[in-house]
């Protein structure tokens, strides 16, 4: 009898989670949800499943494009490959990147001044690193310069009232900007783009766009730590598969 009751409770929780997610996507808002711990973990698990489905769909599309064009558009450039050494970049890809990217692209989804300031500073830093063609995570003189410039620029933006501007933006636009900018940043994994990669670039960033939606949902409803955890799971999965199949 207790097993049946637990089964019913799980099904009910899953339905509530799906309904909550669907209603959030229809109308994103920055209200937190008062979920219990068990509910939050189940929400994380189902969010992970949604992200995996996104990867599978992207893979199917990739195969379809390959048959049409003969070009493996999803193949990343060697210079951006994480497989030069299995453990060499694990700390960056699995831990540091998820934390910094979640702070940059989703911390400001709760529109507090400090959140906006930190997110904008990191976004400026990422942009400067792209323009100067320097790795985000390589600490050298050039990157310290980029950090200083980013802090200065964000400080100036705040003097001119950028935080007040954030408060006037409709939340759904802010949310979808977060998802889109996060996805577009991952085009750097493929630069310089081949002809077909340039044409089919929406397919390249389709998984990251799905990630952005799901992580944004978790960040808003449950807190930043949960979107970071999901990000770590997604980034860590390829390392686990590679390790187990070695």
Strands, total number: 0
Largest sheet: none
Overall, the morphology is globular
Helix percent band: over 70%
Structural class: mainly alpha
Specify Rg, calculated over alpha carbons.
20 Å
Terminus-to-terminus distance: 45 Å
Order of helices and strands: HHHHHHHHHHH
- Which regions contain 5 or more consecutive residues with pLDDT less than 50? 78-83
User: Tally the helices: what do you get?
Assistant: 11
Strand content of the residues, in percent? Answer: under 5%
Mean pLDDT across residues: 84
Task: Please explain how this structure is put together.
The chain is mainly α and 246 residues long. The protein is 74% helix and 0% strand. It is built from 11 helices and no strands. The chain has helices spanning 2-26, 37-69, 90-106, 113-131, 141-159, 162-168, 171-185, 195-199, 201-204, 206-222, 224-244. Helix 2 (37-69) packs antiparallel against helix 10 (206-222), helix 3 (90-106) crosses helix 4 and helix 4 packs across helix 5. The model is unreliable at 78-83 (pLDDT under 50).
């Amino acid at each position: 009898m207790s097993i049946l009751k637990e089964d019913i409770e799980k099904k009910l929780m899953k339905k509530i989670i799906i309904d909550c997610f669907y209603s959030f996507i229809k109308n994103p808002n920055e209200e937190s949800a008062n979920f219990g711990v068990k509910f939050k973990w189940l929400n994380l698990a189902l969010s992970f499943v949604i992200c995996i489905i996104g990867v599978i769909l992207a893979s199917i599309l990739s195969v379809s494009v390959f048959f049409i064009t003969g070009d493996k558009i999803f193949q990343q450039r060697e210079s951006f490959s994480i497989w030069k050494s299995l453990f060499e970049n694990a700390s960056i890809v699995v831990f540091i990147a998820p934390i910094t990217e979640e702070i940059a692209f989703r911390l400001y989804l709760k529109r507090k001044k400090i959140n906006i300031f930190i997110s904008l500073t990191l976004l400026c830093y990422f942009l400067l690193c792209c323009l100067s063609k320097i790795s985000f995570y390589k600490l050298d003189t050039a990157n310290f310069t980029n950090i200083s410039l980013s802090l200065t620029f964000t400080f100036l933006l705040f003097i001119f009232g950028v935080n007040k501007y954030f408060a006037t933006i409709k939340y759904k636009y802010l949310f979808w900007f977060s998802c889109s900018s996060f996805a577009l940043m991952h085009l750097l994994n493929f630069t310089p783009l081949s002809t077909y990669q340039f044409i089919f670039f929406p397919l390249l960033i389709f998984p990251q766009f799905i990630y952005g939606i799901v992580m944004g949902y978790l960040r808003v409803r449950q807190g930043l730590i949960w979107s970071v955890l999901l990000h770590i799971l997604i980034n860590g999965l390829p390392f686990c598969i590679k390790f187990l199949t070695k």
